[in-house]
Amino acid sequence: MIHVESLTKYYNDLCAVDQISFDIKTGEILGLLGPNGAGKTTTLRMLTGFIHPTSGNISVKDFNIDEHPLEIKKLMGYLPESAPLYHDMLVYDYLSFVLSIRGIGVEKKTPRIHKLADLCGINEIMHKPVGELSKGYRQRVGLAHAMMSDPEILILDEPTSGLDPNQIVEIREIIRRIGKEKTVILSTHILSEAEATCDRIIIINHGRIVADGSAETLKQSASGEYLINILLKNAEFKSVKDELLSIDGIKSVTPIENEEYLQVKLLCKSPSDLRGNIYRKIKQTDWILVGFYRETRTLENIFRELTREV
Ligand code: ATP
After folding, report:
1. Domain segments of the chain: what residues?
2. N or C, fewer C-beta in 10 Å, the chain?
3. pLDDT of residue 11
4. What is d(CA 163, CA 171) in angstroms, rounded to the nearest whole number?
């Protein structure tokens, strides 16, 4: 549905987005994940046609953004990081006003507002002034605004930013509900958010894509590296290190501070699980094995590895 090719944006000399390319399928919920300043907002603003790329190409459903910017805008709803809302208006009046300026007639307006209110969970605040709403409800009204024209694609910039944990869960549920019918692209720097909400995650850092896949595939395919911790008695570090480094695939053996046992952390780079080889090696010695576990790779480890400053 969306095809992005070599998209690049310079702000004067600063390269905010650097030749990124990706495709998004209909119905996908895609998370654009990256640390502050990675280029997420810039990418979303280019996708929605708010700013022009320095170079590269965006097409949506065979419309090219240079030739058909309005057609593309019509397909999209956009929730910017801080949604601009009219604070003095009642929620109902605000939504009704937005529909009017989009040329929606009276007879279609009311059912549309009710549908949006159900979808975004704002029925009970329809007659409150926007300025009196909690941040969570304001964000829901922002979502209703973005969904106003029933767009096929919804673009959300940090939709849960500044919300409390309950509000975060509620907004995520609404996004998942919307994602059953729409293509959704959201940006976040919160890993758990991307993992909980998105079918697919693109990690960007310094304007470049550093990983692309489902949370599960990212975890599995990260680098083929994993860590094993071993706790031993009756052993001294030098011989443990020499013996274990002789196993093919063990790249390093690092001592870990432990008052009771000799603890070592092994960096393994192997497509297979080396625990069997390690266990057999230990059995040939007179070391006493008191602990042995493989560290689980979390999306958080992977995110840190991919986005850490070198
Ligand atoms: P955050 O999570 O902090 O919102 P982000 O990933 O959305 O960050 P962007 O806002 O796209 O990142 O910014 C990418 C880079 O471009 C940053 O270095 C930022 O300072 C810079 N930048 C963004 N907008 C502008 C602008 N209008 N003029 C100049 N530089 C900009």
Report:
1. 2-220, 222-306
2. C
3. 96
4. 9
Question: CB within 6 Å of ligand 1 — which residues?
Answer: 11, 14, 16, 34, 36-42, 189
> Looking at residue 223, what is its pLDDT?
59
Residue 42 CA, closest ligand 1 atom number: 11
**150 or 308, which is more confident:** 150
- Condensed to tens digits (0 to 9), the pLDDT of residues 32-55 reads 999 889 999 999 999 999 899 999
CATH architecture assigned to 2-220: 3-Layer(aba) Sandwich (3.40)
Q: Which of 143, 182, 138 is nearest to 163 (CA)?
A: 138
Arithmetic mean of pLDDT, 233-238:
96
The string of pLDDT tens digits covering residues 195-233 is 889 999 999 999 999 889 888 777 766 556 788 999 999
**Given this chain, do its domains 2-220 and 222-306 carry the same CATH topology?**
no
Which of 8, 9, 14, 18 is the pocket-test mutation for ligand 1 (most atoms within 8 Å of CB)? 14
- Domain at 222-306: CATH architecture: 2-Layer Sandwich (3.30)
